[in-house]
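Sequence, please.
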């Protein structure tokens, strides 16, 4: 019995002794030379790592190695497509929060006027409202940190106000010339991706989507149910200046608009097998008039949704050519707390067209593309649109469409260049509009209480001569030149903007867009198209 056991364990024992001998031999002096060493050393380090190690150990001056590594990463990525990016540890939380659709904080919106942090609005039902914070309060201190008159920046104040859920922060407010310390228990604050949803007319509903985040689909469904209950049979989806986000959010919304098992989009890459995204269930709005508003700021997931609707002739795309981003990124966490967002595939619409614009001339040329479009006249004349891809693709009904540079709308709407006269540009760049409306609203709150909701305000409120003159006087004090010779078109723009920003003070972006859209040419065209259906 003992011999049989010995026969079984002898090979194992021999292997252990051999491995131990080889390890000890490798560690002995003089053992690191000759062919035998090659059998046991680890693979040689990459040159980049070797250089970094030498810089750490040998360089004459002390270096900020983390900064060097970040620059090296950026250098590598600069040779790839423009959407493969490195996210430093300091930025990762903010980036993730934006797409997750929430963060932990106190629930206020603020602006900074003359080194003073002003509470512009308070999130309904949020921690600040619960604690008694009011619109018009001025934040003087956060815990022991003085923030007033201290060259405070938006990023700094956000870092002070945000923190772990259920943690406490004491914010000292100035209200009616009295200092009031308020203790606030931080909580989850939603970052809504749907800015507005309302009935434009008894039949037509409107939904403004500002990005495609983790909460967007559920927000969209809630808005659709509300509008359907209100009698909606036709719909405007506004994707202007929507930079995209999660692919899944766009395809799930497309599934609510398209029937059967239609192909919405597919993705494919060198190391990324083809994945098809199809309609999987009965949608909430598969029938009924549909228009989608786009512009040069509509990108990525926005283009997937607009492209799918166009490919299947489900609705009318109105506006201007979209950005042209047809690349899919995956985010990989790194050991330093940052992340690499790497392009792993392209997406293709049902007809097989890719809408990714060229990046062959480098990132600088890629970034300049939108300005070049403007300079070439594309924003004001559809004939100036240069299709980068000459290959023709066809929609379900046989209409010819092109890839290689965004979604070209079915109905072109020019950009109103007159909106950016010198005087208006100065007002926008100096935040004159928002600063005035905040101060005006704070001192005239009682006058606005008679409006029951944003619709009532949008229909009834008019910018009076008294209000307009007060704004002009404020603009002069704000060093805006040309106020004394404002043209009629600029006056209309100013009054429209003032009304929309006052609506925002009361009903956030829902009020802002409902008011602004009253005079919006693209919205007027969408309504005209839908009324013909």
């Amino acid at each position: 019995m003992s011999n049989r056991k010995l026969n079984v364990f002898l090979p194992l024992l021999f292997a252990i002794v051999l491995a131990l001998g080889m390890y000890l031999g490798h560690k002995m002096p003089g053992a690191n030379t000759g062919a035998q060493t090659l059998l046991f050393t680890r693979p040689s380090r990459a040159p980049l790592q070797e250089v970094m190690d030498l810089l750490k150990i040998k360089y004459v001056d002390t270096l900020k190695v983390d900064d060097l590594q970040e620059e090296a990463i950026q250098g590598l990525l600069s040779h790839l497509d423009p959407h493969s990016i490195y996210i430093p540890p300091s930025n990762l939380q903010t980036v993730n929060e934006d797409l997750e659709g929430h963060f932990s904080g106190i629930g206020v919106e603020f602006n900074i006027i003359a080194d003073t942090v002003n509470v512009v609005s308070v999130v309904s039902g949020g921690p600040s409202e619960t604690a008694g914070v009011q619109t018009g309060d001025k934040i003087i201190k956060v815990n022991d940190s003085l923030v007033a008159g201290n060259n405070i920046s938006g990023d700094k104040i956000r870092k002070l106000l945000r923190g772990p859920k259920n943690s406490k922060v004491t914010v000292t407010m100035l209200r009616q010339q009295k200092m009031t310390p308020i203790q606030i228990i931080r909580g989850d604050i939603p970052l809504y991706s749907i800015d507005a949803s309302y009935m434009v007319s008894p039949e037509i509903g409107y939904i403004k989507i500002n990005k495609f985040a983790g909460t967007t689909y559920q927000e969209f469904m809630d808005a659709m149910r509300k509008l359907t209950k209100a009698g909606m049979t036709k719909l405007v989806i506004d994707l202007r200046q929507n930079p995209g986000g999660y692919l899944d959010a766009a395809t799930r919304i497309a599934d609510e608009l398209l029937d059967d098992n239609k192909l919405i989009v597919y993705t494919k890459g060198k190391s990324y097998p083809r994945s098809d995204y199809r309609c999987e269930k009965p949608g909430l709005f598969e029938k009924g008039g549909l228009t989608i508003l786009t512009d040069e700021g509509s990108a990525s997931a926005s283009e997937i949704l607009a492209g799918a609707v166009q490919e299947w002739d489900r609705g009318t795309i109105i506006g201007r050519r979209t950005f042209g981003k047809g690349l899919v990124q995956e985010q990989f966490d790194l050991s330093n707390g940052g992340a690499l967002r790497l392009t792993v595939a392209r997406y293709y619409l049902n007809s097989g067209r890719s809408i990714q614009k060229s990046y062959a001339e480098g990132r600088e040329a890629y970034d300049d593309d939108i300005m070049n479009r403007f300079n070439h006249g594309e924003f004001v004349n559809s004939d100036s649109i240069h299709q980068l891809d000459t290959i023709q693709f066809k929609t379900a009904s046989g209409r010819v469409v092109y890839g290689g540079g965004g979604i070209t709308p079915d109905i072109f709407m020019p950009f109103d260049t007159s909106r950016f006269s010198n005087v208006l540009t100065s007002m926008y760049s100096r935040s004159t509009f928002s600063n005035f409306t905040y101060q005006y609203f704070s001192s005239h709150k009682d006058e606005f209480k008679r409006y029951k909701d944003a619709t009532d305000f949008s229909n009834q409120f008019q910018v009076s001569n008294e209000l307009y003159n007060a704004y002009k006087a404020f603009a002069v004090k704000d060093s805006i030149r040309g106020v004394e010779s404002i043209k009629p078109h600029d006056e209309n723009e100013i009054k429209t903007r003032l009304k929309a920003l006052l609506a925002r003070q009361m009903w956030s972006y829902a009020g802002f867009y409902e008011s602004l859209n009253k005079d919006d040419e693209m919205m007027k065209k969408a309504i005209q198209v839908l009324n013909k259906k």
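The longest strand covers residues 339-349.
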